[in-house]
Amino acid sequence: MILCCGEALIDMVPATSAEGEACFLPKAGGAVFNTAIALGRLGSDTSLYTGVSDDLFGTLLKDTLTASNVGTAHLRTMDADSTLAFVELTNGNASYTFYARNTADTMLTPADLPSAPDAKALFFGGISLCTDPTASTLQDFMRAHGDTRLTMIDPNIRAAFIKDEASYRARLHDMIGLADILKISDEDLNWLVPDSTDIAAQLAKLTGNAPKLAFVTKGAEGAVAFHGNTQIGQIAATPVTVADTIGAGDTFNAGVLHVLDTKGALSKSFASAPDTDIVQAALALAVRAAGITVSRTGANPPWAREL
User: Residue 210 belongs to a domain with what CATH number?
Assistant: First the structure.
């Protein structure tokens, strides 16, 4: 089982009412939530660890997980509001305004942590790494289980959500150092390592030249894979008419993990000495799946049958 650890929230997506008025449509979302949904739809055994509200939005989140074959045994139901992310679209590119003060997915403590004995891989990322107590709880969880399970992280940085940049950068550097697999967009890489535009040099500075498996997404230019400072794979983007970019990177994450899962490569040994054919297959499916997601409104990852 792949355990996805992080936020679950409600994306308030711009829409038009039947009367022609501008409005917002609530959609289940959140970076880590979306990755779990995409994994479930692709056919991997997956579950989500997060805090969910006991309000109507929490019910929407739970129902969406169940409908997409994602396990809910590790959810923690809380007497707190759901996080809301109001989406603004500019030429299909999404920016967000968050309402997340003391909300359910930001309030996880060590007492809420699962033992996760059945998880062979742990995935972390998103805005869940910005706000304590959840951020520190997930960092501790990664430290406690990273020696025995494959770990993957996607920072998926939302700069507007960060309150303490120094602490956030320190946490990311620590968790990236612990992770077996790093997935990062070129925009996030430039935010973390702004003094270079060379991906190999940026990764080297970020990881300290550790022999880490890294996937870097480059939007319309596709994606590349590195092991340490050596490029070991690349793929062009799938030509598609973009509705919006919500959930694209999250779907990419799921595509990578799903291929590794089906190839028996969800292991620390694979990440330390990756097979380039499997890496290339992971890139190919991840980009295809993300292409379907961006072709339709909101974070709506594809089912396996759509591929």
Answer: 3.40.1190.20
